[in-house]
Amino acid sequence: MSRLGLPQWAGTLAVKAAVFIAVMCCALAALLGVLVHVSVTNQTVGQARDLALSRLTDATRAYQAGDTLLPGAGVDPPGLPRALRELAVDGERGTMVSRQHGHPTMWAAGPADRNRALAVEVDYAQQSRTIAALDRAILWSSGLAIGATLLVGAFAVTRVTRRLHATATVARRISAGDLDARVGDPRAEDATRPQDEVGAVAAALDSMAASLQGKLLSEQRFTADVAHELRTPLTGLHAAAELLPPGRPTELVRDRVAALRTLTEDLLEISRLDTGREKLDVDTEELGALAVRVVRASGTDTEVVVVRDVRVETDRRRLERVLGNLVANAHKHGRGPVTVTVDGAVVRVRDHGEGFPDYLVEHGPQRFRTEGGATGHGLGLTIAVGQAEVLGARLEFGNAPDGGAVAVLTLPHDPAVPDGPT
Asked: What is the DSSP letter of 113?
């Protein structure tokens, strides 16, 4: 089943939160900056325009009275913007900002006589510097505000994402089999502190893990108790079956008693593996020779191919148990020829039957589950997987392209240990 992938732009929650905060801060700073800039500029330009129009009124009175015009006033002075002169010639009064001799100047013009314009100029440099300084102050303050907001937001979001990451890590540990893992969020444990959604998720995960652990421990104890209690009556039943007279019914009884004893021993072994307290008896073994001994002890027609032999440090009894179960499963549920191939620290057991079921390849063996009319309880491969985990090995199941089931056991191998013969 294919998983839905995140789009290319999607990142971690902290990155997305930081981007969102930055965008909102920039938008807010831009909006406030524009509002302040427009307000102050309108006020400054309005004051300069009123001053220029006031001087234009004084100059108009002096011109009409024939008096000498004040400095900065004149008829069709050089530098007067053409658009403003045309407006004044048409009989209107107006103002305009332009640059005169490299300095910003506010012009005010009105009509004079004989299609001429009377204009005055007011120095606009101070107002221009005020607006430029205001713009710089807006930019600097916006940058500082955005930076401070990002730091505070990143700190707050990082605290949340750190708690979420810890919760996800514990969830992965629980799914991997560590039922003792707990989040232990301080907000969830302290009832006096305000609770949030992350704390609620952590508390729910801890509660689920505790409930799941309790149920699994109860099942493990039940399985172990049942298997242990069955050993005593089975021993007596086995002894009684041995006293029966020879015959077909006796053989059937002995066969069923033996099967029941095997099932009981498998259940006891699984219960011990479930506790996770198994200890290894490590020794150095030649993997090829060990595989030959396992096949010989199974009494089956199995071919052993040693491509490259190695010496591994492992628990001989547990490794023989794993390989023995794999060989027995190949003969019981598959078809010959069955081959055991040793290639370094990798052992492959292959048959030429119908292959493993899909659920087993995807999820591994499940106890008391078989498909396709197969007989058995599904405990042999379960025990093999459990013993492989105790050994620190990896056991994988698959199907060959040309048919047949393939079980691959990869053992931990120290390169410092000398290899065996090829």
From this structure: S
Residue 406 has pLDDT above 80, yes or no: yes
The rounded radius of gyration (Å) of the Cα atoms in the chain is 45
In tens, the pLDDT along 222-256 reads 766 666 666 677 677 777 777 777 777 777 877 77
Q: Whole-angstrom Cα distance, residue 14 to residue 117?
A: 65
**Taking the CB of residue 396, how many other CB atoms lie within 10 A of it?**
14
pLDDT average, residue stretch 58-84: 84
C-beta neighbour count of 36 within 10 angstroms: 15
Q: Tell me the backbone φ, ψ of residue 350, rounded to 5 degrees.
A: -130, 140
Strand, helix or coil at 106? Answer: strand
pLDDT of residue 186: 72
Distance CA 7, CA 54 (A): 64
What are all long-range contacts of 170-178, with beta carbons under 8 Å and residues at least 24 apart? 170/205, 170/209, 171/205, 174/205, 174/209, 174/212
Residue 387: per-residue pLDDT? 75
CB atoms within 10 A of CB 174: 20
Of 73, 75, 94, the residue nearest 84 (C-alpha):
94
Distance CA 396, CA 409 (A): 7
3 DSSP assignment:
P
Q: Alpha-carbon distance 230 to 262, whole Å?
A: 11
- For 218-222, 314-318, 324-328, which range has the lowest pLDDT when averaged over its residues? 218-222
Q: Which pLDDT belongs to residue 315? A: 81
What does the DSSP assignment read for 150-187? Answer: HHHHHHHHHHHHHHHHHHHHHHHHHHTT-TT-----HH
Helices (H), 66-117: 82-89
Burial 291-301 (b: 16+ CB within 10 A, else e): bbbbbeebeee
* pLDDT for residue 7: 45
d(CA 58, CA 38): 30
- The pTM of this model reads 0.50
Least confident of 76-80, 136-140, 203-207, 411-415: 411-415
Q: CA–CA separation, 40 vs 49, rounded Å?
A: 14
Strands (E), 238-353: 282-286, 302-308, 311-315, 338-343, 346-350
